[in-house]
């Protein structure tokens, strides 16, 4: 395999020899000052590489030598804390003074401590009952920010011929705006019920949980005529694990430990555009 080392900052030359030795690689390619590729690396050395890179704030990935981004046909992304930096429901809750309470449930759900995502979402949305729906627009305008490298990653994926899917346990209010803003091909998320300009504390229709995320990835692959092994799935929380397991390449982005351990690749330091630099 090739071992790809990335960093948001220049990588010190002092790392080259230790990494080559740990990877049991005899050839190093300096792509640029933030990207190294070690040729013919031993993937069985992953635990040692993981420990070294974690200590020195480097991201690593073992990649098939001839693989290209254009080998894939779809990149599927979670929204909250993946494509964007916030958890939208936590920020909505801030407008009714309940951010800490809602955020605690969100965090426990993403770590996998609350096994029933439907229950955790229902509990959190119920706390929003009576909130003026204008709070959603304020969250989008004032607080929603794209994760580093998001636009570059999407542009690179499109240029390589990939379709894009945004699938979220969050809300259509945000996914539809991001779809239009970023040119995303497909979206799936939850719909908040709004009556007389206020949130009712309920979700309309099927809740997008881990199983629905995985099913949406499979259905989108079928729609565009590819095998799920030609999909890339990116996420950060435990409700992304089933979707990530369906894909040929899974990327944990600044993710919870349970997700980092299960993913093909983890980006703890670089932006989402680190995906483009793997190939």
TrEMBL record:
Annotated EC: 3.1.3.3
InterPro entries associated with the record: DUF4072 (IPR025138), HAD-like_SerB (IPR050582), HAD-like_sf (IPR036412), HAD_sf (IPR023214), PSP (IPR004469)
Coiled-coil stretches: none
Keywords per UniProt: Amino-acid biosynthesis, Hydrolase, Magnesium, Metal-binding, Serine biosynthesis
Keyword set includes Transmembrane: no
Pathway assigned to this chain's UniProt record: Amino-acid biosynthesis; L-serine biosynthesis; L-serine from 3-phospho-D-glycerate: step 3/3
Cofactors named for this entry: Mg(2+)
EC primary class: hydrolase
Gene3D superfamilies xref list: HAD superfamily/HAD-like (3.40.50.1000)
Pfam families named among the record's database cross-references: DUF4072, HAD
Family statement: Belongs to the HAD-like hydrolase superfamily. SerB family.
The protein's name: Phosphoserine phosphatase
Source species of the chain: Caballeronia concitans
